[in-house]
Each structure stands twice: as C-alpha cells, then as structure tokens.
Amino acid sequence: MAVDRPWIPKRVLVTPSALGFAHGAAMVERAAAAGAEIVRLPADRLAGLPDTYRDAKSTMAVVVASPSRRRPQPIPPSADWRFDLAEGCPAHCQYCYLAGSLTGPPIIRAYANLPEILAELTPLVGQGTITSRSPARAAEGTTFECSCYTDPLGIEHLTGSLSACISHFGTWQLPAETPVQLRFTTKFDAVEPLLGLPHHGRTRVRFSLNSRSGERYEGGAPRMTRRLAALRAMAEAGYPIGLTIAPILPLIGWRGEYDRLLADVAEALDGVAVPDLTVELITHRFTDKSKSVLVGWYPGTDLPLDEAARTRKVTKFGTGKWVLPRAEMTAMRGVITEALAHRLPRAHVLYWT
Ligand code: SF4
C-alpha cells in the first residue's frame, strides 16, 4: 500500500558511541519526539535485533559507521564514488535491490558519524574513474552517490543527513576546475526541507519512477503522482533533476504504460525551466539470493521471477543474475528511448542497463 505520511519506526536502538555524535543524538531526539520507543544499548554491538520482517522493518538503529563501511567505493555506471549515510529503507518494494546486497534482518542502520563520513570524500575530489572518465559525463565533476543502500529522503525527517550533505556539497570551497556533484535517487516526496538549502546546483536528485502497473510492487512508498509533484518542486528550487526509471518490467501493456509515465513526467514539468534533465534506465534483474530473500519477505508476490523467462548473465565477480532476454531487452530499449525522445526531447539518457 502506498503511503502519504512520514515513516516512524516503532523502536530505535542507539549505541553509546552513536550518542557521542551530536548528529546521532539529534536523530534520537527526533525519533523520540515522533513517538518511537528509544532503546539505549549498553554496548556498541547491536543486540536484540528483531527476527521477523515486520518487526525489522519498523526498527531503526543509530550506529557509528566503521572505517570499512565509510570507505567510498566506485559505483558504475551511476557515479565515481558511492558513500553511505544509512543502510536499509522503510519502503516495501517487492523487487527491492537491497535484498541482494544487504544481509541480516532488514532494519535501518542510520550513521551518526556524518562528519567522519564526509571527511572521507575530500581526498577523492578529482579522483573519479567512472563518470569522470566518460567523455559524455566528465562535466558533472567528481560524482558521489549516496543512495545505494538506502532511500535517504525516506528517513530524512529522522536523520537530517541528506540536508547536511546537500549543504556540505553546496558550500564546499573547491577550485572551479574541480567540480563535484552529489547524487541521490528516491521514491519519496517529502522535499520541503530541501527546497531552501544552499545546494548551488551541486546535487542532482533523481526520482525513481515506474509504470502504473509496476507501482503495485512499491508498498510503503508515495504514489507516483506525489513523486512527480516533488520532482517539479525540486526543479523549481533549481536542483538538477533526473529520472531513474526502474526496474523496467515487461508487464502486460508495457509499451503504453511507459509512454504514459513519460507523458506524466512531461506534464509534471510543464512550464518549468529545466536546463538539465537526465534519465537512467534500469531493467529488472534478480539473483538466486535476492529471489530467495524476496520470496521470503513477500510470499504472495506475483512479481515476474521465473528463471525460464530470463537469461543468466555472469557478472565480473563471477556471480549470476537473471536479466531480460536479449530480444526483449532490445525491443524495450527501442520503444522506451523512442518514447523519451518524443515526450521529453531535451532529456539526456545517461545509460540503459
Ligand atoms: Fe528497496 Fe528502494 Fe523500495 Fe526502499 S525504495 S524498498 S531501497 S527498492
């Protein structure tokens, strides 16, 4: 079911070290004010984690990101570097990509040591190997993605981390020849606190959108119409914007459905001066591990997860993933990119994967 209210965890676990950071203490204060039960752990090890999906999804832990967790990593094809403000997400998407990348109960871990996390980024300015080396994207500067393991806007009313990050990037004193860009993707719509921040065009927000028939798999996330209104608001506030159309699914009537989505985007942006609209197109894929986790979380799902209808692709890490067959992929790519050229002629497609 879609939501129109901010997510409030039932329980917030907080470690002693996390409380030692003003940013962590502020998160706990906000959660308590919102009505969450606060559990102060006696030690920094997370203990007493819930073992059911339902309980885990209503639990947030405020912790300190260890040195290994706060070390940025290259993240092709999206950005030069990935860094994390949190892990886990309050939504309930039946295709959630986190099912294949995170382990353990799906609680949210929000990081209290934001100053340490941001300090890791400084030596990486000018050091990108992904978008920085792409002739088509090098003008974006060194790109930093902060939504790989969470939806940072979905928890922003509790963490404040995204706003702090946007302001940090916007006011970062850097020589003109070393531009930077913060990037995040979201399915949420509570953008009001971001509108007046000193972003200085250095943050690109991409809204994660799908066809109306794909929307039924996105429990706990705001409806597409609300995301489109948020897209418009961010564009009006001067943010570079983008669309992450994902996961592209060959559901019945997909041709008309994706065309309709793009028509909805064009209507949402009607009359707004958008100098720079990017589009990222990501087809649905799953792994043996993510399928087994997702079927455990959503036993009644009718999400297309039939291996017989897919092609197995071996990644550079030697693991396999089930992607759309080549012919279907080619057909979808042709139809959707053509619809994009028709509905949003000024949009700049960054990649199809
Ligand atoms: Fe997963 Fe993204 Fe959905 Fe959150 S919004 S449940 S991270 S797919």
Task: Tell me about this structure.
There is one protein chain. The protein has 353 residues and is of the alpha/beta class. The chain has helices at 16-19, 22-33, 53-56, 98-101, 114-119, 156-159, 161-171, 192-195, 224-236, 254-268, 288-297, 326-343, and strands at 11-14, 37-40, 59-63, 73-75, 79-82, 86-87, 92-93, 108-111, 142-145, 180-186, 203-209, 218-219, 241-248, 277-283, 311-314, 320-323, 348-352. Helices cover 30% and strands 22% of the residues. β15 and β16 (320-323) form a beta hairpin. α10 (254-268) packs parallel to α12. It is globular. The two termini are 28 Å apart. Bound molecules: iron/sulfur cluster (SF4).
Q: Strand count, sense and closure of the main sheet?
A: 8 strands, mixed
What distance lies between the first and last C-alpha atoms, to the nearest angstrom? 28 Å
In round numbers, the mean pLDDT is 95
Q: Please tell me what the overall shape is.
A: globular
Q: Number of DSSP strands?
A: 17
Bound molecules: iron/sulfur cluster
The secondary-structure class comes to: alpha/beta
What Rg, in angstroms, do the CA atoms define?
A: 20 Å
What is the H/E order?
EHHEHEEEEEHEHEHHEHEEHEHEHEEHE
Tell me roughly what share of residues is in helical segments. 25-40%
- Assess the beta-strand content as a share of residues: 15-25%
List the strand order in the largest sheet.
Answer: 4-5-9-10-11-13-14-17
Q: Which residue ranges are poorly predicted, with pLDDT under 50 across at least 5 consecutive positions?
A: none
Number of helices: 12
